[in-house]
Amino acid sequence: MSKEIVVGINGSAGSEAALTWALERARRDKLPVLIVHAVDDRWMSPEFQYHEIIRESGMDLLQKAQASAREQAPDVEVDIQLRHGSGGSVLRDVSTEAALVVVGGHGKRWLDGGPMTDRALQVVAASECPVAVIPVKRATGDRGVVVGVDGSAESLQAVAFAAAEADRGGDDLSVVLAFKSPARWVEKQLPSSGLAESLVEENRIVLAESVAGLGGQYPDLTVHQRLETNIEPAKALVNIADGARLLVIGSRGRGGFSRTVLGSTAHAVLLTVPCPTLVTRVHKVKHGD
Question: Residue 264, class by beta-carbon neighbours within 10 Å (0-12 exposed, 13-18 middle, 19+ buried)?
Fold first, then answer.
């Protein structure tokens, strides 16, 4: 039996966008869809008089989502499931048997202009399978697949995933390596060292190695190598992927701490999702302490 695409919903515009995107992918890949809603009842006592009302409300939400899904994609098998617990823990549990978990992002921000932390971050950090985060508003006529690399094992997995995705969809693939240049005061302490030039050349080699072999594996795939200097990786990816069909990133990079589940770049990108963004976890990569 084929693994399911799992969609987490909560009644928000983001979860509606996630469901639509998941149905499109399920139709393409001929996979069933499971719509999941979590009732977080950890704070309720068994005697809580509104417990059943909250459960019924959750089931009503699921049934409406299922009806919408059948209207959008009548040829896709769609099931629903009400689970108990936090959204993050529930989707973590179902991810063990899923092909992909899909959740919605949001554009909400704090009063000071900074982005709010999204539950999507919890899901991505805990999931055992790839997770797609779908923005509320998607660009029309979006084309191209973008993938971020940094030479880590995770980013190489992301490139493999993105290349297959781009080739299947007839898209160009943009492979992006971005890094922040050394502070000027550092360069001034190292006169004539050529530090900046060396960093550019080293990263250019990493970028080239990241795409090595793609031409032989996908002869019809157009690959663009983009080396972005003096910019934070997350900002570069968000800028370049604006309007793309898909952005692919690894869950961690070479700069992360060994015990950190979600890397800083992935974390920053997911706070400002520029387009449907997929965080790969194709297989676990062992890191040293």
Answer: middle
Q: Are 98 and 3 in contact (CB under 8 A)?
A: yes
At residue 262, the pLDDT reads: 62
State the DSSP string of 114-142: PBPPPHHHHHHHH-SS-EEEE-SS--TT-
Q: Which pLDDT score is estimated for 116?
A: 42
pLDDT of residue 142: 77
- Predicted pLDDT of residue 119: 66
Distance (Å, rounded) from C-alpha 119 to C-alpha 37? Answer: 13
If the chain, 289 residues long, is cut into consecutive pieces of 10 residues, what is the mean pLDDT of each piece?
A: 88 92 96 92 58 84 97 97 86 92 73 51 84 84 89 91 96 94 56 70 94 95 94 94 94 49 79 91 50
Q: What is the CA radius of gyration of the chain?
A: 21
Contact by Cβ (8 Å): 143, 245: yes
Q: Which helix (H) or strand (E) holds 62?
A: helix 51-72
Residues 143-154 as b/e (b if ≥16 CB within 10 A, e otherwise) read: ebbbbbbbbbbb
Question: What's 22's DSSP letter?
Answer: H
To the nearest 10 degrees (0 to 180), the angle between helices 195-211 and 153-169 is 50
SS (H, E, C) 144-160: CEEEECCCCHHHHHHHH
Angle subtended at Cα 168 by Cα 163 and Cα 169, rounded to the nearest 5 degrees: 100
Residues of the chain by 3-state class (helix, strand, coil), percent to 5: 40, 20, 40
Q: What is the pTM of this model?
A: 0.86
